[in-house]
Recover the amino acids of this structure.
Protein backbone atom coordinates (compact mmCIF):
# COMPACT_ATOMS: atom_id res chain seq x y z
CA UNK A 1 0.00 0.00 0.00
CA UNK A 2 1.37 3.38 -1.01
CA UNK A 3 1.51 6.49 1.16
CA UNK A 4 -0.98 8.26 -1.11
CA UNK A 5 -3.55 5.48 -0.54
CA UNK A 6 -3.42 6.15 3.22
CA UNK A 7 -3.51 9.93 2.81
CA UNK A 8 -6.49 10.06 0.47
CA UNK A 9 -8.38 7.43 2.46
CA UNK A 10 -8.10 9.68 5.52
CA UNK A 11 -9.17 12.74 3.56
CA UNK A 12 -12.15 10.79 2.18
CA UNK A 13 -13.26 9.70 5.64
CA UNK A 14 -12.99 13.32 6.78
CA UNK A 15 -14.94 14.42 3.67
CA UNK A 16 -12.16 16.85 2.78
CA UNK A 17 -10.70 15.53 -0.46
CA UNK A 18 -13.29 17.20 -2.70
CA UNK A 19 -13.35 20.61 -1.05
CA UNK A 20 -11.14 23.33 -2.51
CA UNK A 21 -11.51 25.54 0.59
CA UNK A 22 -10.52 22.87 3.13
CA UNK A 23 -7.68 23.69 5.47
CA UNK A 24 -6.50 20.08 5.82
CA UNK A 25 -3.98 19.23 3.11
CA UNK A 26 -2.08 16.01 2.29
CA UNK A 27 0.95 17.52 4.04
CA UNK A 28 -1.07 17.80 7.27
CA UNK A 29 -2.13 14.17 6.97
CA UNK A 30 1.46 13.01 6.35
CA UNK A 31 2.52 14.84 9.50
CA UNK A 32 -0.12 12.95 11.47
CA UNK A 33 0.55 9.50 10.02
CA UNK A 34 4.26 9.90 10.83
CA UNK A 35 3.44 10.39 14.50
CA UNK A 36 0.80 7.69 14.76
CA UNK A 37 2.92 5.22 12.79
CA UNK A 38 5.75 5.65 15.32
CA UNK A 39 3.27 5.25 18.18
CA UNK A 40 1.79 2.04 16.77
CA UNK A 41 5.20 0.52 16.02
CA UNK A 42 6.35 1.16 19.60
CA UNK A 43 3.15 -0.41 20.91
CA UNK A 44 3.79 -3.49 18.79
CA UNK A 45 7.36 -3.68 20.06
CA UNK A 46 6.11 -3.65 23.65
CA UNK A 47 3.63 -6.40 22.85
CA UNK A 48 6.24 -8.54 21.11
CA UNK A 49 8.43 -8.57 24.21
CA UNK A 50 5.93 -10.99 25.72
CA UNK A 51 5.26 -13.06 22.59
CA UNK A 52 7.26 -15.19 20.18
CA UNK A 53 6.37 -13.08 17.13
CA UNK A 54 9.19 -12.37 14.72
CA UNK A 55 9.80 -8.65 14.19
CA UNK A 56 8.07 -7.45 11.06
CA UNK A 57 10.03 -6.33 8.02
CA UNK A 58 7.25 -4.05 6.81
CA UNK A 59 8.39 -1.08 8.90
CA UNK A 60 11.95 -1.21 7.54
CA UNK A 61 13.14 0.87 4.61
CA UNK A 62 16.38 0.27 2.75
CA UNK A 63 18.55 3.20 1.75
CA UNK A 64 21.93 3.37 -0.01
CA UNK A 65 24.65 5.80 0.98
CA UNK A 66 27.89 7.03 -0.59
CA UNK A 67 30.94 7.32 1.66
CA UNK A 68 33.77 9.84 1.91
CA UNK A 69 36.96 9.97 3.96
CA UNK A 70 37.16 12.59 6.74
CA UNK A 71 39.77 13.39 9.35
CA UNK A 72 38.94 12.36 12.90
CA UNK A 73 40.35 15.66 14.23
CA UNK A 74 40.42 18.32 11.49
CA UNK A 75 43.97 19.58 10.99
CA UNK A 76 45.58 16.74 12.96
CA UNK A 77 45.36 13.63 10.77
CA UNK A 78 48.43 11.95 12.30
CA UNK A 79 47.01 12.24 15.81
CA UNK A 80 43.36 11.66 15.16
CA UNK A 81 43.37 9.33 12.16
CA UNK A 82 40.32 9.31 9.92
CA UNK A 83 36.84 7.89 9.48
CA UNK A 84 34.59 7.15 6.60
CA UNK A 85 31.41 9.21 6.63
CA UNK A 86 28.22 9.15 4.62
CA UNK A 87 28.11 12.03 2.17
CA UNK A 88 24.66 13.07 3.38
CA UNK A 89 22.74 12.74 6.65
CA UNK A 90 20.36 9.87 7.22
CA UNK A 91 16.75 10.27 8.42
CA UNK A 92 16.30 9.94 12.16
CA UNK A 93 16.04 6.32 13.28
CA UNK A 94 13.05 5.40 15.43
CA UNK A 95 14.06 5.29 19.09
CA UNK A 96 14.44 1.79 20.48
CA UNK A 97 15.18 0.17 17.11
CA UNK A 98 18.55 -0.98 15.79
CA UNK A 99 19.38 -0.55 12.09
CA UNK A 100 21.24 -3.11 10.04
CA UNK A 101 24.14 -1.99 7.88
CA UNK A 102 25.65 -3.99 5.01
CA UNK A 103 28.06 -3.48 2.14
CA UNK A 104 26.46 -3.10 -1.28
CA UNK A 105 27.25 -6.76 -1.93
CA UNK A 106 25.09 -8.32 0.75
CA UNK A 107 26.83 -11.71 0.52
CA UNK A 108 30.38 -10.43 0.86
CA UNK A 109 32.35 -11.45 3.96
CA UNK A 110 32.54 -7.89 5.28
CA UNK A 111 31.27 -7.77 8.87
CA UNK A 112 29.69 -4.41 9.77
CA UNK A 113 28.35 -3.79 13.27
CA UNK A 114 26.13 -0.82 14.14
CA UNK A 115 26.89 0.55 17.63
CA UNK A 116 25.77 3.54 19.67
CA UNK A 117 27.61 6.84 19.44
CA UNK A 118 28.93 6.41 22.99
CA UNK A 119 30.28 2.91 22.36
CA UNK A 120 31.90 4.00 19.10
CA UNK A 121 34.60 5.79 21.11
CA UNK A 122 35.94 2.53 22.53
CA UNK A 123 35.65 0.01 19.68
CA UNK A 124 38.39 -1.13 17.31
CA UNK A 125 41.05 -1.92 19.93
CA UNK A 126 40.38 -5.64 20.46
CA UNK A 127 42.89 -7.70 18.46
CA UNK A 128 40.40 -10.55 18.16
CA UNK A 129 37.79 -8.29 16.57
CA UNK A 130 40.05 -6.29 14.29
CA UNK A 131 38.20 -7.36 11.13
CA UNK A 132 34.88 -5.93 12.29
CA UNK A 133 33.86 -2.56 10.86
CA UNK A 134 31.92 -0.34 13.28
CA UNK A 135 29.27 2.18 12.30
CA UNK A 136 27.41 4.76 14.35
CA UNK A 137 25.28 7.84 13.76
CA UNK A 138 27.04 11.09 14.62
CA UNK A 139 25.48 14.24 16.12
CA UNK A 140 25.13 15.60 12.58
CA UNK A 141 23.09 12.48 11.58
CA UNK A 142 25.85 11.29 9.23
CA UNK A 143 27.03 7.70 9.49
CA UNK A 144 30.61 7.37 10.75
CA UNK A 145 32.67 4.25 10.14
CA UNK A 146 35.93 3.07 11.66
CA UNK A 147 37.88 -0.17 12.08
CA UNK A 148 41.24 -1.44 13.25
CA UNK A 149 41.69 -3.07 9.86
CA UNK A 150 42.87 -0.40 7.34
CA UNK A 151 41.09 -2.24 4.52
CA UNK A 152 37.84 -0.58 5.58
CA UNK A 153 38.94 2.60 3.80
CA UNK A 154 38.14 0.96 0.46
CA UNK A 155 34.43 0.95 1.17
CA UNK A 156 32.69 3.39 -1.16
CA UNK A 157 29.02 2.64 -0.52
CA UNK A 158 26.76 1.15 2.15
CA UNK A 159 23.19 0.02 2.41
CA UNK A 160 21.13 0.42 5.59
CA UNK A 161 17.87 -1.20 6.67
CA UNK A 162 16.16 0.76 9.42
CA UNK A 163 12.86 1.99 10.80
CA UNK A 164 12.94 5.72 10.19
CA UNK A 165 10.73 8.23 11.97
CA UNK A 166 10.41 10.38 8.84
CA UNK A 167 9.65 7.76 6.24
CA UNK A 168 9.13 10.49 3.65
CA UNK A 169 12.74 11.68 4.07
CA UNK A 170 13.94 8.14 3.46
CA UNK A 171 11.96 8.05 0.20
CA UNK A 172 14.69 10.15 -1.44
CA UNK A 173 17.41 7.60 -0.56
CA UNK A 174 15.61 4.32 -1.22
CA UNK A 175 17.31 1.51 -3.12
CA UNK A 176 16.29 -2.03 -4.03
CA UNK A 177 17.99 -5.35 -3.25
CA UNK A 178 20.40 -4.79 -6.14
CA UNK A 179 21.30 -1.34 -4.77
CA UNK A 180 19.55 0.40 -7.66
CA UNK A 181 18.16 3.84 -6.88
CA UNK A 182 14.37 3.68 -6.44
CA UNK A 183 13.92 7.10 -4.78
CA UNK A 184 10.53 8.65 -5.46
CA UNK A 185 7.93 11.18 -4.46
CA UNK A 186 7.01 10.44 -0.80
CA UNK A 187 3.37 9.96 -1.80
CA UNK A 188 4.38 7.27 -4.30
CA UNK A 189 6.52 5.32 -1.82
CA UNK A 190 5.32 2.14 -0.13
CA UNK A 191 3.91 2.92 3.30
CA UNK A 192 6.23 1.15 5.79
CA UNK A 193 3.88 -0.45 8.31
CA UNK A 194 2.23 -3.83 8.85
CA UNK A 195 -1.00 -4.15 6.90
CA UNK A 196 -3.13 -5.03 9.90
CA UNK A 197 -2.17 -1.73 11.59
CA UNK A 198 -3.43 0.40 8.69
CA UNK A 199 -7.13 0.50 9.79
CA UNK A 200 -6.10 1.57 13.30
CA UNK A 201 -3.79 4.24 11.90
CA UNK A 202 -6.54 5.63 9.65
CA UNK A 203 -9.06 5.60 12.49
CA UNK A 204 -6.70 7.50 14.81
CA UNK A 205 -5.92 10.14 12.19
CA UNK A 206 -9.59 10.64 11.24
CA UNK A 207 -10.51 11.04 14.91
CA UNK A 208 -7.74 13.61 15.35
CA UNK A 209 -8.85 15.62 12.32
CA UNK A 210 -12.56 15.53 13.12
CA UNK A 211 -12.36 16.13 16.88
CA UNK A 212 -12.30 19.92 16.66
CA UNK A 213 -14.88 21.87 18.63
CA UNK A 214 -18.20 22.85 17.06
CA UNK A 215 -18.14 25.47 14.34
CA UNK A 216 -20.81 26.71 11.88
CA UNK A 217 -21.06 24.75 8.67
CA UNK A 218 -19.53 26.24 5.53
CA UNK A 219 -21.94 24.81 2.96
CA UNK A 220 -20.62 26.74 -0.03
CA UNK A 221 -17.63 25.08 -1.71
CA UNK A 222 -16.57 28.35 -3.30
CA UNK A 223 -12.86 28.55 -2.35
CA UNK A 224 -13.69 31.32 0.14
CA UNK A 225 -13.47 31.11 3.90
CA UNK A 226 -17.08 32.11 4.59
CA UNK A 227 -16.73 31.14 8.25
CA UNK A 228 -14.32 34.01 8.84
CA UNK A 229 -16.99 36.45 7.58
CA UNK A 230 -19.49 34.99 10.05
CA UNK A 231 -17.05 35.35 12.93
CA UNK A 232 -16.26 38.95 11.99
CA UNK A 233 -19.98 39.77 11.79
CA UNK A 234 -20.66 38.30 15.23
CA UNK A 235 -17.74 40.12 16.83
CA UNK A 236 -18.81 43.42 15.32
CA UNK A 237 -22.45 43.16 16.35
CA UNK A 238 -21.86 41.78 19.84
CA UNK A 239 -20.00 44.91 20.93
CA UNK A 240 -21.73 47.33 23.25
CA UNK A 241 -23.10 50.62 21.91
CA UNK A 242 -20.42 52.59 23.77
CA UNK A 243 -17.62 50.44 22.37
CA UNK A 244 -19.00 50.86 18.84
CA UNK A 245 -19.09 54.68 19.29
CA UNK A 246 -15.48 54.69 20.55
CA UNK A 247 -14.34 52.65 17.55
CA UNK A 248 -16.34 54.84 15.17
CA UNK A 249 -18.61 52.08 13.95
Amino acid sequence: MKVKDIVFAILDFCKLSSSDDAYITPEHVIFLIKRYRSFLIKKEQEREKTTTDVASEFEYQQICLDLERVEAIPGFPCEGGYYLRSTEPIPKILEGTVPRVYPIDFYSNVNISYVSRERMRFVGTNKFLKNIIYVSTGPDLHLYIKADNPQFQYLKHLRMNAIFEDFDEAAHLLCDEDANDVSCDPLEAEFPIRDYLVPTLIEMCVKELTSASYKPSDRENNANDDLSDIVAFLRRNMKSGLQQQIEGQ
